[in-house]
Amino acid sequence: MTYQNYSLKQLQQIDAAHHLHPFTDHKELREAGSRIITHANGPFIYDADGTEILDGMAGLWCVNVGYGRDELAEAAYTQMKELPYYNSFFKCSTPTPVLLSKKLAELAPRGVSQVFYGSSGSEANDTALRLVRHYWALEGKPEKNRIISRKMGYHGSTIAGTSLGGMEPMHKQLGGAVPNIVHVMMPYAYELALPGESDHDFGLRAAKAVEDAILEAGADKVAAFIGEPVMGAGGVKIPPMSYWPEVQRICRKYDVLLMLDEVITGYGRTGEWFAAQTFGIEPDTITTAKALTSGYQPLSALLVGDRIAATLVEKGGEFYHGYTYSGHPVACAVALKNLEIIEREGLVDRVKNDTGPYFAQALQERIAGHNLVGEVRSIGLMGAIEIVKDKATKERYLPSGSAAVVVRDHAIAQGMMLRATGDTMILSPPLIWTRETIDMACERIAKALDLAEVDLRKR
Ligand code: PXG
């Protein structure tokens, strides 16, 4: 039976009766009822009432080629009929993960040519954590196992993902994190730069926090540093250009591996295939998922640098790690087709040379001047709008995080889906957006800001 046999109300009732949602206050949701999205096409999603909403978040940072791609459905269908599943354990392989690995090795930054598959970003980060610790053990340094991460970083929701991440509320519910992971300051100039400190100098100071953490533990105790090139769920926090090269210099100086989590930034989001290329760095591992299939199938790929891979292969011995769905044939078939579409349509170049710069300019010209907006920032097609009570002093509305939700709700009512995290509005649209789509989005956001201002000033 398909959902068409149920009314919206019935679906909501059943949802409330049986479905536990991710990152949700279940009491609150069950009182309010869920928004049920039933179909989508191009840049638009549609709810059960038929309301058209422009999807400013590409689903959840993933639908980079937009919705309604027949080619992706056909790739899945064909592969399912031919070979829906076989594993890649016990010296077996199937064609699509083999070919996808070759493709990823071609696209990846220099020195990165190996791939380990999972089904989610969280799984890929579990793999990454285990792999770097295994690497140092193989190198005869098992005590070199501390990982340095960042406050407000997001690396997934499994126990390892939560432990790597720096989200306090998640840690509070964890009941014991994976040991020996520490968190340093994030490179977020808007709130953390000192008065008069340049962006460049702030970037260097934030990188210095990594060096301090290495020195505190002793370099022979530190395995790796992990970070999102641009923090995503933490609020699209774009580091100064001085930050990443300096972090890389520090990591090399102390022989600490550099792990990038590109689950959001991978596959074109910042105007290069990987943000490592945008920031000019050469990491040892790159965690990817989401846009690898544009969200049409669950799939993650941990891209592994040659240094780690060489040790793994040369020293031998089994790495006791893997998932039933590692290298899933259908997910990999969809990924291959998705990458083909991104290449064929030149979406990465378009973000770099056309829509990315236009998006930045549109946010500056049409959104930044609003009374409620403290700052706008973007890189490629990834942007943030800081909601404040007072532009000059950067004072926020209280309670913290309450104002952005008001803007978001007005935006959705205007036909514009975006996300509120803390006091920050986030945009991460499909890479198929054109200048016209950006214009449409800015118009709706500006209207939402006007309406929200009326509500918020009444407080
Ligand atoms: N790393 C990063 C950088 C992510 O953004 C993950 C790992 C975990 O991926 P999986 O596939 O296990 O979810 C993510 C996921 C949000 C939000 O609210 C962001 C994510 C997931 C759920 C919500 O912005 N990112």
Low-confidence stretches: none
Question: Helix amount, in percent?
Answer: 40-55%
Count of runs of 4 or more consecutive helical residues: 17
Counting copies of identical and different chains, the oligomeric state is single chain
Q: Report the mean per-residue pLDDT as an integer.
A: 97
CATH architecture heading of the largest domain: 3-Layer(aba) Sandwich
Number of strands: 15
Which of globular, elongated, flat, extended, rod-shaped describes the shape?
globular
Number of domains: 2
| Rg measurement, Å | 22 Å
Fill in the CATH topology of the largest domain.
Aspartate Aminotransferase, domain 2
CATH superfamily of the largest domain: Type I PLP-dependent aspartate aminotransferase-like (Major domain)
SSE-based structural type: alpha/beta
Terminal CA distance: 48 Å
Strand order of the largest sheet: 4-10-9-8-7-5-6
CATH class of the largest domain: Alpha Beta
Reported for the largest beta sheet, the result is: 7 strands, mixed
Bound molecules: 3-[O-phosphonopyridoxyl]--amino-benzoic acid
Protein name: Putative aminotransferase
Organism: Mesorhizobium amorphae CCNWGS0123
InterPro entries: Aminotrans_3, PyrdxlP-dep_Trfase, PyrdxlP-dep_Trfase_major, PyrdxlP-dep_Trfase_small
Family: Belongs to the class-III pyridoxal-phosphate-dependent aminotransferase family.
